[in-house]
Amino acid sequence: YQDFNFCGFGNVGLHSMRYLHRFGAKCIAVGESDESIWNPDGIDPKELEDFKLQHGSILGFPKAKPYEGSILEADCDILIPAASEKQLTKSNAPRVKAKIIAEGANGPTTPEVDKIFLERNIMVIPVGVTVSHFEWLKNLNHVSYGHLTFKYERNSNYHLLMSVQESLERKFGKHHGTVPIVPTAEFQDRISVSPESYTMERSARQIMHTAMRYNLGLDLRIASYVNAIEKVFKVYNEAGVTFT
Predict the structure, then answer these.
(1) Which residues, listed in sequence order, are joined to residue 80 by a DSSP beta bridge?
(2) pTM of structure
(3) What is the distance between the alpha carbons of residues 138 and 128, in angstroms, rounded to a whole number?
(4) Which InterPro entries match (predicted)?
(5) What is the CA angle 234-238-242, rounded to 5?
(6) Is residue 72 within 8 Å of residue 87, measured between CB atoms?
């Protein structure tokens, strides 16, 4: 899937658009409360961001045309409702043409919409208040979630590489010059990856595995609930709390 539409161009919409654009996807439509724009050849997130910062709105963006109608019902592969709650309801869900709904706002779909999308084989990637959770953990620990573990791992890997380098230099002598031991690009990415992105990727894989294990098909929302409940059960069970 390559073409995607955004309903909402705030923090969630902008940064999601950047990531998708970076990985080769193409934004063909963006909708806000005052205007919707469309360009089948693609909309550059940086250019649109600069225009909005200068003019306070996406209205009049020169590299796209005004779009008449609802962005939620426009042609695309991926639809990202990133503006407000209850954007997708049972009244407009039957007209949605996207193959994947990636929720960006909090609760952009109503409960009855999930059933409609499942019947139409449209995947819904459910959203949660993820960033608030990270902020809570940061405030609780006074450090970004995962940074302690990743810092330890990164430092351990660095000292391991330095140990190998110094051992080779002692073996072959300094007169041969230094023997730099550097990580591969893939290894470097691994040890410097954002802990938040790692956590999100790991959670997504767990949810997909849960969906497959319980034969839930495209119902990733139920899979998310099951995955969360299983984690709670595991913690209580390991703590010796019995369930009746």
Answers:
(1) 6
(2) 0.74
(3) 18
(4) Glu/Leu/Phe/Val/Trp_DH_C (IPR006096), NAD(P)-bd_dom_sf (IPR036291), NAD_bind_Glu_DH (IPR033922)
(5) 85
(6) yes
